[in-house]
Write a structure and sequence with these properties.
The chain is α/β, with parallel strands linked by helices and 460 residues long. It has 17 helices and 7 strands. Strand 1 and strand 2 form a beta hairpin. The structure holds zinc ion.
Length: 460
C-alpha cells in the first residue's frame, strides 16, 4: 500500500507548498495534534485538487453562444483569471472569456462559469454560503465566523454571514409568497412524501404567539426595545410509542412549523398551505389544540372545524377555574383551593357540564360584589364557549394530548433558542430572513434553497 504522506511529500518537492504541514504531521505527538495537522494538509490538498480540475476543464474547447443583440457568434478574448472563496479556501484558476466580435455592449461571457453554476460577480461558492447559513440558523453571526475559521481556515466576516442570511432568507420568503399566491389562485402545493405508517397517524395542529424583542427604529440599534408578537403553528403526526417498562406515550412525527411576524390573518394562508402539504384532508383524524387565544380559535373555525377534534389546553382551562375560585373565596385560601380542586377534578374526568353549571349557580349568589360577579361570568362564558373543546375524559380515552405543551416547546425551539439571546434585538427584515431559514431547516427544506438556478448571487 502506498503511504499517502510520502506520496504527497514527493509531489510537493518541486513546489514546497505543504512542506510545513507535512513536517507538522511527522512531528506531532498526540492524536489530537496529528489530526489537526492532517486536517490542515487535507484542506490544502483539497484546494489543489479543485484548482487542477478547474484548470483542466478550462482547457477544453467552448461552445460559444450568439450575441443577444446582433446574433453573431461570440469570440474568445483569451484566458482570464477568476477566484472565489470556498470551503477549501480561496480557489483561483483561469478560463476563456468571450465577447461579441461587433463590440456590442455587455456581452462578455465565461461559458465555464455557467457550467460551474457561478455568476459573474459571485465571490463565495454555494457550499460555503450554505454552511454559513446553516450555522447561523443556530448560532450568532460572530460565532459563525469563528467556527468557520476554526474548521476551514477561511476568513469570512460576521457581516458577510449576515448578508448571506439576508439573501437566502429573502429567497425562502419569496418562494413561500409564490406558493401562497398560487394557492389563492386554486393551485394547491404538492403534498409531502410520507410513509404509510405516518400517513395513518392522526394529525395534530396547534398555534400560539411568542413575543420577540424588536428594534424601535428601522436601521438604528439604539432606543428602547419594543416587543412584538410572532404567530407560530405546528403540524405534526401523532405517533404512539411504548417505553421499555411498557408504558405508552405520545410521540410527534413529521413535525412541521409555520410562523409569521404578523397577526392570525397573516398566519392563515401559511397554515393552510402547510396543512395541504401534510395531507390534512386525508388524515384519519385532525386534532386542533390551543389555549384560549380568540384569534387562533377563529382560525380553527375558518379552516379546520369540519371533522376536526378541538381541544382547549387543560392547563389554561384549569387556570381560569382558579381565577374563579380566587374571586369567589377571596382571602379564604383553603376554601378556594378545595373548591378549585374539586372543579378541576370534575373537568378532567368527564363532568365538564357540571362544572359549567356550578359556575352558573355560583354567579347567582347574592353576596358577591360586581367585580367578583364579573370574573365569575368571564370564566363561565369562557368554558361555555369552549364546552365542546373540554371533554378531557374523552380525549384521554382516544389517546390524545390534553395540553398544548408541544406547541409551546415548538415555539421555544423556533424563537427563544435563537432570537432571545442576551442583548439581542431585531429589525423586522433581519428577523424575518433568519426565521425563514430556521423554518426551512426544521421543515427539511433547507438544502433546496441552495440550488443555484435563477438565484440572487450571495455576494459579500
Ligand atoms: Zn453583438
Amino acid at each position: 500500500m502506498l503511504e499517502v504522506l510520502s506520496v504527497l511529500e514527493k509531489l510537493d518537492v518541486p513546489f514546497g507548498k505543504w512542506t510545513e504541514d507535512i513536517a507538522a504531521i511527522r512531528e506531532a505527538k498526540s492524536l489530537a495534534a496529528i489530526v489537526r495537522a492532517s486536517w490542515k494538509l487535507g484542506l490544502g490538498v483539497g484546494k489543489e485538487i479543485v484548482e487542477q480540475e478547474l484548470w483542466k476543464r478550462a482547457q477544453q474547447p467552448n461552445d460559444w453562444p450568439t450575441c443577444p443583440t446582433c446574433g453573431k457568434k461570440l469570440r474568445s478574448k483569451g484566458m482570464r483569471p477568476r477566484q472565489i472563496e470556498t470551503l477549501l479556501g480561496n480557489v483561483s484558476w483561469s478560463r476563456r472569456v468571450g465577447r461579441c466580435p461587433e463590440g456590442c455592449k455587455e456581452t462578455q461571457v465565461a461559458p465555464l462559469d455557467q457550467v460551474l453554476e457561478i455568476e459573474p460577480y459571485q465571490q463565495t461558492s454555494w457550499e460555503l454560503v450554505q454552511m454559513g447559513c446553516l450555522l447561523a440558523v443556530f448560532l450568532p453571526f460572530e460565532t459563525v465566523r469563528i467556527i468557520l475559521h476554526q474548521l476551514t481556515g477561511v476568513e469570512i466576516s460576521a457581516k458577510s454571514v449576515w448578508n448571506w442570511v439576508q439573501n437566502m432568507g429573502k429567497r425562502a420568503m419569496e418562494r413561500l409568497e409564490t406558493e401562497i399566491n398560487q394557492l389563492a389562485q386554486g393551485n394547491p402545493p404538492t403534498p409531502e412524501e410520507m410513509n404509510e405508517t405516518i400517513e395513518k397517524m392522526p394529525l395534530v395542529i396547534g398555534a400560539d404567539g411568542v413575543m420577540i424583542p424588536m428594534r424601535p427604529h428601522a436601521g438604528k440599534p439604539d432606543g428602547k426595545t419594543r416587543w412584538r408578537e410572532v404567530k407560530v403553528a405546528i403540524l405534526s403526526r401523532l405517533g404512539q410509542s411504548v417505553t421499555r417498562a411498557g408504558r405508552e406515550f405520545l410521540r410527534l412525527q413529521q413535525r412541521r412549523l409555520v410562523a409569521v411576524f404578523g397577526d392570525t390573518e397573516a398566519l392563515r394562508p401559511r397554515l393552510m398551505l402547510e396543512a395541504l402539504r401534510q395531507k390534512w384532508q386525508s388524515a384519519p383524524k385532525v386534532i386542533w389544540i390551543s389555549d384560549g387565544g380568540k384569534g387562533f380559535w377563529n382560525l380553527y373555525r375558518q379552516c379546520f372545524a369540519q371533522g376536526a377534534i378541538a381541544i382547549l389546553d387543560f392547563y389554561h382551562a384549569a387556570q381560569n377555574l382558579w381565577k374563579a375560585a380566587a374571586a369567589a373565596f377571596d382571602g379564604r385560601t383553603t376554601k378556594a383551593r378545595q373548591w378549585f380542586e374539586s372543579l378541576r377534578h370534575q373537568l378532567r374526568h368527564g363532568q365538564e357540564a357540571q362544572v359549567i353549571a356550578k359556575l352558573a349557580e355560583t354567579i347567582e349568589f347574592k353576596g358577591f360584589s360586581d367585580e367578583v360577579r364579573k370574573t365569575l361570568t368571564t370564566v363561565h362564558n369562557y368554558l361555555f364557549t369552549h364546552q365542546s373543546h373540554i371533554n378531557y375524559q374523552h380525549y384521554k380515552e382516544l389517546g390524545l394530548p390534553l395540553g398544548s405543551g408541544m406547541v409551546e416547546s415548538a415555539c421555544k425551539w423556533l424563537i427563544q433558542q435563537r432570537f432571545k439571546g442576551v442583548g439581542m434585538h431585531w429589525s423586522e427584515p433581519g428577523f424575518n430572513h433568519l426565521l425563514h431559514l430556521r423554518l426551512a431547516w426544521v421543515n427539511g427544506r433547507f438544502d433546496d434553497l441552495f440550488s443555484p438556478i435563477s438565484s440572487p448571487s450571495p455576494n459579500s
